[in-house]
From TrEMBL:
Taxonomic lineage from the root: Eukaryota, Metazoa, Chordata, Craniata, Vertebrata
SUPFAM superfamilies recorded: EF-hand
Positions of the EF-hand domain: 43-78, 79-114, 124-159
GO molecular function, one term: calcium ion binding
Protein name: EFCB1 protein
InterPro entries tied to this protein: EF-hand-dom_pair, EF_Hand_1_Ca_BS, EF_hand_dom, Recoverin
Coiled coil start-end: none
CDD domains: EFh
Pfam families, per database record: EF-hand_7, EF-hand_8
PROSITE patterns the record matches: EF_HAND_1 (PS00018), EF_HAND_2 (PS50222)
The gene coding this protein: Efcab1
Record keywords, A-Z: Calcium, Metal-binding, Repeat
Length: 171
């Protein structure tokens, strides 16, 4: 109860600071991104956008208090089951229930550091996508279903954030 009350207080603080058009209902993507950045050190705009979309259950462009508390509950304290579902939703860029080769490519390309010496960094990313598919695509259909993703993560927990950091670290 006290944790939920603290989350609600934090929500109210963020709403009052945001001063945006959603102030009566909640706060927008910019306020949310600032909160993720300051509290959890997230810097990847694409990943913060995906996390926002996962929190924003009703897709109204605004995080309300219920979405905030429920989202942070999974984000900070979720069971492995909840976190697998959450990460899958973050990585499923088009919301079709699968993580395609193109979606993997976009996320990995976005989250990897660029090495100036590399001839074609896209080639390295394509190689990583191939490795990820080989390791995670259990039914060998060229895309990751939720069942593929869940099995891969249960076999190897480190694969939970295989396509970019979307959960806070232990600290």
């Amino acid at each position: 109860k006290s944790e939920v009350e603290c989350l609600i207080q934090l929500f109210d603080t963020l709403v009052s600071k945001s001063g945006n058009r959603f102030a009566a209902a909640g706060f927008d993507r910019d306020t949310f991104s600032d909160a993720l950045h300051s509290a959890f050190g997230m810097t990847d705009d694409m990943m913060m956008d995906r996390v926002f979309r996962t929190f924003d259950r009703d897709n109204d462009g605004c995080i309300n208090v219920v979405e905030w508390v429920e989202g942070l509950s999974v984000f900070l304290r979720g069971t492995l089951e909840e976190r697998i579902k959450y990460c899958f939703e973050v990585y499923d860029l088009n919301g079709d229930g699968f993580i395609s080769r193109e979606e993997m490519f976009q996320m990995l390309k976005n989250s990897l550091l660029k090495q100036p010496s590399e001839e074609d960094p896209d080639e390295a990313v394509k190689d990583l996508v191939d490795v990820a598919l080989k390791k995670m695509d259990h039914d060998h259909d060229g895309i990751l279903s939720f069942m593929d993703f869940e099995k891969a993560v249960r076999d190897e927990n480190l694969l939970l954030e295989a396509f970019g950091p979307c959960l806070p670290d232990i600290k």
